[in-house]
Design goal:
By secondary structure, the protein is of the alpha/beta class. It has one helix and eight strands, in the order αββββββββ.
Length: 137
């Protein structure tokens, strides 16, 4: 083979390799609802795996409660759903083995562990005087 034909073969092999790697990418998608069946917009969905270079990919549910995380390489994933006021839902051991869409829906329950702290001062009220005042600016 000449140098030029070797380069052409190398380019073709590289292109075929990239195509097969791209074809092996998976997508996870689904709908997140509350315990009454209503969809939940704004839920943070995290897919984490050692197979990811960045270790975690994040998405949020839209107004219809739907989410999608695309271009995930094969591997074992942990999927976490979180929204303030709701208990976090975690799905461990999700195996993605090839191309395609894996449907993972979630049902979130209102969390009893949510703590709301309100701070502020109590206004001073004079309860002994009946005098009325007007402040003009």
């Amino acid at each position: 083979m000449t140098g030029k034909s070797q380069r052409v073969v190398s380019v073709l092999l590289f292109t075929a390799l990239l195509s097969s790697v791209a074809a092996a990418q998976s997508t996870i998608a689904g709908v997140v609802r509350d315990s009454s069946g209503a969809v939940l917009p704004g839920v943070t969905v995290e897919a984490s795996s050692p197979a990811l270079i960045e270790r975690v990919r994040t998405a949020a549910t839209d107004n219809g409660g739907q989410y999608q995380i695309a271009n995930l390489p094969p591997g074992t994933y942990t999927i976490k759903f979180s929204l303030p006021g709701f208990a976090t839902v975690v799905r461990d051991g999700v195996n993605l083995t090839g191309a395609g869409v894996t449907s993972i829906n979630a049902e979130m329950r209102v969390s009893a562990a949510e703590t709301l702290t309100v701070t502020g001062e109590t206004p001073v009220v004079d309860v002994r005087s009946t005098r009325q005042q007007t402040v003009m600016a």
